[in-house]
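Reminder to self: keep the SMILES exactly as supplied, no canonicalising. Ligand is zinc ion.
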Amino acid sequence: MRDRVCVDSVAFARDAGELRGTVTTADLPRLHDSLFDQSGEIAYSVTGKVDKDGVASLRLDVAADLLMTCQRCLGPVKVSLNSARNFVLVPPAAALGDPAEEPDDEDRIHADDQLDVVDLVEDEAILCLPMVAVHKTGECAPPLAASGENDSKSPFSSLAALKRQ
Ligand SMILES: [Zn+2]
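Structure tokens returned for the bound complex:
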């Protein structure tokens, strides 16, 4: 069970708070199905502000190099995450509005005095990771002989053929 990193979102925005940290992907279970392994780390920073109209928001930056599974060769392929998003804080009782009308890099969330920052980081990573990852052409690991169907083309069978000559 990971440590929760919680902030009082409105107070954090009002105080122009700044928070930096890293979280290991081993602690982000909702990412596990997308990743090759759980060795990666995500660096994040959260900064709070209140604009001139009194609208409180948090800006979240995340950066990470993660390993996903290549859908062609099943080897690890590096995927870089680098994103920034603004979360406009909406009073708990108010409606969040239609997400379709928000800009791509902005979300409305309910103000929360126990806002879980790592949860936001996990959401952002899920949003930003590609659905599928593949290596660039020519960068896939050579297929292993495990499939069995390509036996005649495996390096071992050609080696065996050489030895027979
Ligand atoms: Zn590959």
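Points to follow up:
The pocket of zinc ion is lined by residues 70, 72-73, 75, 77, 134-135, 140 (CB under 6 Å).
The longest helix spans residues 117-128.
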